[in-house]
Amino acid sequence: xxxxxxxxxxxxxxxxxxxxxxxxxxxxxxxxxxxxxxxxxxxxxxxxxxxxxxxxxxxxxxxxxxxxxxxxxxxxxxxxxxxxxxxxxxxxxxxxxxxxxxxxxxxxxxxxxxxxxxxxxxxxxxxxxxxxxxxxxxxxxxxxxxxxxxxxxxxxxxxxxxxxxxxxxxxxxxxxxxxxxxxxxxxxxxxxxxxxxxxxxxxxxxxxxxxxxxxxxxxxxxxxxxxxxxxxxxxxxxxxxxxxxxxxxxxxxxxxxxxxxxxxxxxxxxxxxxxxxxxxxxxxxxxxxxxxxxxxxxxxxxxxxxxxxxxxxxxxxxxxxxxxxxxxxxxxxxxxxxxxxxxxxxxxxxxxxxxxxxxxxxxxxxxxxxxxxxxxxxxxxxxxxxxxxxxxxxxxxxxxxxxxxxxxxxxxxxxxxxxxxxxxxxxxxxxxxxxxxxxxxxxxxxxxxxxxxxxxxxxxxxxxxxxxxxxxxxxxxxxxxxxxxxxxxxxxxxxxxxxxxxxxxxxxxxxxxxxxxxxxxxxxxxxxxxxxxxxxxxxxxxx
Length: 543
Description:
- 43% of the residues lie in helices and 22% in strands.
- The chain is α/β, with parallel strands linked by helices.
- A 6-stranded mixed β-sheet has the order 5-6-7-3-8-9, sandwiched between helices.
- Helix 8 links the parallel strand 6 (187-191) and strand 7.
């Protein structure tokens, strides 16, 4: 049964995005990943499916009675709400009845009501009617359902009273998801729901998607999550869909095979066309020399043969940034941390941490949100002064730092100025260099860093790392905000890097590709616990 369908949809965005003749039938209960480069239109497709955007041509058709829940990238809640009170607004019908009941209860305290038998009877009848409506709408079980859903998606009972203004970006997404699923829509459209979630949060989200009875479309750059939950992949590139069956890994393999087959078919067809063109030229030459109508007809027949061909498109490679991190050999012992303690007033964040890194090690630092991973980084880089303990950096070590929130960037400067601050070069050289990271001329020269998207700032930071030529990289969530293709370029560059890498990441696929040791910041043990191998090896140790 089809839950939702795009039927030959065309949509043009003022920014230049063009989606043309898109068709897609989403089956009830399917779990699909929607992937594609940044800017390819994935969020636009979700908004077309929800009806938030209207196509220029074509139709968006939902099954009779189908409902859609949409989780956007950016979430904002009304001020003054707690986690529980915000979640309770999920059902507009129940919230409306509840507000009406509150008004009725307030009127019962009005002397003009309780001193008038007629008026009092009217208000009591109204209250009874609202209570019946409340019960019919499921209101008696509603609060328990809300609380159970909150717990399922990671909110403890003790957190229900917290203000929504205190929530992280990842927690806001989970609270919005709670509000969506309470109404059990037949289709869930999730736009990067895993952004800023820690590993435990991602695992909870995966389990939820597995158990959800309705259809789910998830836009995510987390390849591990797509492997875990997706039964099919829809790729959006160049304004067109390509459909694949199976997990993300199956999609990667099948895509490579399709591209290889297309390249072979294109080459074979081009060879055939070249032979036909040569024959046409030969027949046309003979026709001119001997003025023979038979040769003219033969040339026309060959031309028709070419025209009737079902042309194979030339394989196109998606453009990606060109990143090369050279590095160089410095000290054998790159970093030595001994009994590191960091406290803010009476709040101890890091308690007696120990870590030693050697040349060419690739180490992934993991741990739940709030355990102090970024604080540890800032202590190592000198941005924070340790309360106690010793941090030693090797004498021949040059650090290159990638910050999660892009704090190292000057938002007021344009891109060319930013690059030339790192390395002296002519303007045209800076523009050419930025072009390697997918920044066109106009953007490189005239846009400020502050006007860039999160993904563009991430690429800019990587460009600056390349110019700095460090031999010790400290990377805080480098794959946040970048598309999968850019993440793959980064992985390749790090694997070829002649230096040491210490990276904070919740990207499990990335950790498996890059690191040879996982270090977990475990507050229960009060230290860094080391595991050899990537994330999959770490996971095996936990089971």
